[in-house]
Amino acid sequence: MNFRRLADSPLSTLLTGLLAVLVVICVVYAPGEAFKASGEGLAIWWRIVFPALLPFVVLSQMLLAAGFAHGLGTLLDPFTRRVLGLPGSFGWVLPLGMTAGFPAAAEAAATLYKQGKVTAREAERLASAAHFCSPMLLVVVIGSGFVGRPEFGLLLLAVHWAAGLAAGLTLHFVFPDRSASSTPAAARSTTRPHIPLLRLAVRNMEEARREDGRSFGKLLGDSVASGVQTLMITGGYMLIFAVVIHVILLALPDQAFAVAVKSAMEIHLGSYAISGLAPSLPPALTASLLGAALGWSGLCAYLQVRAILGPAGIGERSFLLNRLLHAAYAYVLTLMLWKPFTRWIPGVLPAFGGDGSPPLGNDTPAATLPNWQQAFGVMEWQLWMLTLLMFGLLSIALLWRRQDEH
Question: Which InterPro entries match (predicted)?
């Protein structure tokens, strides 16, 4: 299926127009409720998404322009292509997606494609395989805020990461990329086989920095401007979806329908709504539904990624399939790990009951969102996590190469 042709079709234009009309109707139908819902969306964006994402988007843009990601990709390329069928730059995009959350991986993949370092197909696969929710959402917002147990957020984070990696591996083995051997990165690695890998990595890093050619001041300004623009797009989508969801639920206030709509459309509101199911569902099932919703990550997240990949000419076919697999794996893994985890940490199980459960049908209250002090604490933790994940992947790749040489 040609997704770019579909995006330019009259059907796509009609759907876009209908969505725009729907937003206007929502605001006219209930202006007061729409204003309240947009305020909730703004609070989520400002106190969760903005502090968790902006530093990493800026850092990613600067490291890509400085050539660091290209040098790292050269070292990892033999390993990632053999195991995952992806270029070595996945060694930067994956840790970035795991620690910063969406749409940081899509932004990095689009930048690599614009630089000519990966093909459009590789950029699509990079963005889909490295798409994860932010650890701040899982550990601080859901674990500490919604449930009252940070360790439960850590369980969700571990399952979220494992399920995402399993989904990426599944897509690689079921739908391998036949054009991987003809990519620019692969060609550069094979045209100079006599050069040691470390020296080749330094050379590619220097070439990438020279090709960019911007001074540090110019690079910093461009990176901040690009990061803010990406976050403004993300915030706009979140505000619109918060308004549409709120008005839809005013017309159809059924509680089960409310949970389904929020979970399918926007992950922050959806995870809060699922947390409210705790009194009526077994804890293991509630946790599994949360895991599945986080794996899907919502229609809002898909449109955020599409807004980044689409203008660059990158498709999103594998992205949707990856999201479905991620959700399915997360659901199954959470069910499998629930009993062992509650034996190791017994306090998690009672956290899903009592009067503290969020009321069904309400939007996320500001009281459950992290303050700026918590956000900066999590940001520091994310930076350490990003560093450890990169060095971990690099160590595995070098050990793999040493075993192959022997």
Answer: Gate_dom
Span 170-220, pLDDT tens digits: 888 887 766 654 444 444 444 445 567 777 777 878 888 888 778 888 888
Instruction: State pLDDT tens for residues 95-150.
Output: 888 888 888 889 889 988 988 888 888 888 889 999 999 888 888 888 877 777 77
Instruction: State the amino acid at position 184 in one-letter form.
Output: P
Rounded Cα–Cα distance for residues 310 and 316 (Å): 8
Global confidence as pTM? 0.82
In whole angstroms, give the CA distance from residue 56 to residue 62: 10
In DSSP notation, 126-141 reads HHHHT----HIIIIII
**Cβ-proximal residues to 86 (8 Å cutoff; 6+ apart), any chain:** 80, 122, 125, 126, 129, 172, 177, 180
CA pair distance 2, 126, nearest whole angstrom = 19
Mean pLDDT of 256-268: 87
Q: What is the DSSP string of 283-331?
A: HHHHHHHHHHHHHH-HHHHHHHHHHHHGGGT---HHHHHHHHHHHHHHH
User: Structure tokens of 164?
Assistant: 């995402």
- Beta-carbon contacts of 25 under 8 Å, excluding residues fewer than 6 positions away, are none
Rounded (5°) CA angle 308-312-314? 85
Angle subtended at Cα 289 by Cα 283 and Cα 290, rounded to the nearest 5 degrees: 90
CA distance 213 to 82: 33
Short-list 151, 156, 150, 146, CA closest to 357? 146
- Give the contacts of 143 (CB within 8 A, at least 6 positions apart): 149, 150, 151, 152, 153, 154, 156
DSSP secondary-structure letter at 361? T
Token pair in block for residue 89: 């730059």
How far is it, in rounded angstroms, from Cα 30 to Cα 177? 48
Beta carbons of 122 and 87 less than 8 angstroms apart: yes
Per cent of the chain over pLDDT 70 is 79
- Residue 310 one-letter amino acid: G
- What gap in Å lies between CA 115 and CA 74, rounded to an integer? 15
User: CA 229 from chain center: how many Å?
Assistant: 17
Count CA atoms within 13 Å of residue 35 on its CB side: 3
